[in-house]
Design brief:
The complex is a heterodimer. Helices cover 50% and strands 19% of the residues of chain A. By secondary structure, chain A is of the alpha+beta class. The longest helix of chain A is centred in the middle third of the chain and has 14 residues. Chain A is globular, with a radius of gyration of 15 Å. The chains are: A alpha+beta, B mainly alpha.
């Protein structure tokens, strides 16, 4: 996977803007879908993030009941890697910037 | 290597395989789930989609490999640490595609509540629904019985 900090080859002003946009903290958010089994989502959270059963289940229920759950927060590059892995498991995952930080 | 063998009903499962194979063929060129990649730059997005598709195709190939000579002899399929995760993911990919295409006439509420009267469905939808349920059952089986034995090594 191409890394966020090394793939941008554009004009200097655009590069600066993009670099600033990619700084800060990013949330990995999992969205609800009507197909995946609850037990499958729990298993994926445990496998991908190393959550214990209770934490994985809490996030799964949050997705199921509230439609979304923030499962990880950190730097953009690692957030992208987590999003990719979740998508390999066919979960709907997005990145959101934590604009407060 | 830990390994678990499961005996499936040939009479029930074999007739479903042609539809499952057709769905897998359809998935060769498309992602099972629409992914939110709009925040990625175009070059990364192309590579990203291609990598996801490659993984999805590999998983589906591993899944179809379950239905080999042993399966057609006595209904036996086997799982180990090498194929458990790919099979789980492939089942999801196929179920997502079935839901989007063959089962689009059914509501989420009907499916989630178990309120589908299979006998009332037309033949193509009935078969797709049986595939959908079979794949979910296979996933539950792997998750429940192989979680500690195989997936956690």
């Amino acid at each position: 996977m191409t890394m966020a900090g090394t793939r941008i080859e554009v004009a200097p002003s655009s590069r600066t803007e993009t670099a600033l946009a990619l700084e800060g903290l990013w949330h990995v958010v999992v969205l609800n879908d009507p197909v995946n089994l609850m037990s499958y989502v729990v298993l994926v959270f445990r496998r991908v993030f190393g959550f214990d059963e209770a934490t994985a289940r809490r996030h799964m229920l949050e997705v199921h009941e509230q439609g979304r759950s923030v499962v990880w927060t950190g730097v953009r590059e690692k957030a992208e890697a987590y999003m990719f892995t979740l998508q390999q498991w066919h979960l709907s995952a997005i990145l959101e910037s934590d604009e407060k930080n | 290597m830990k390994r678990i063998e499961v005996k499936l009903s040939l009479q029930v499962v074999a007739p479903l395989l042609d539809l499952i194979k057709a769905v897998v063929d359809r998935l060769q060129g498309r992602l099972a789930a629409p992914q939110h990649l709009q925040d990625l730059d175009e070059e990364l997005r192309t590579d990203w989609r291609s990598d996801l598709l490659g993984g999805q195709n590999d998983d589906c190939r591993r899944f179809l490999a379950l239905f080999d000579r042993n399966f057609f002899a006595d209904g036996t399929v086997s799982f180990d640490e090498a194929n458990a995760e790919p099979v789980l993911r492939a089942c999801t990919a196929i179920r997502l595609q079935l839901r989007e295409q063959e089962l689009k006439s059914l509501s989420d509420e009907m499916i989630e509540s178990g309120g589908v009267d299979v006998a009332q469905l037309g033949e193509p939808v009935q078969k797709a629904f049986l595939c959908y349920v079979f794949l979910a059952t296979l996933q539950e089986l792997i998750i429940q019985h192989l979680d500690t034995a195989i997936l956690e090594g």
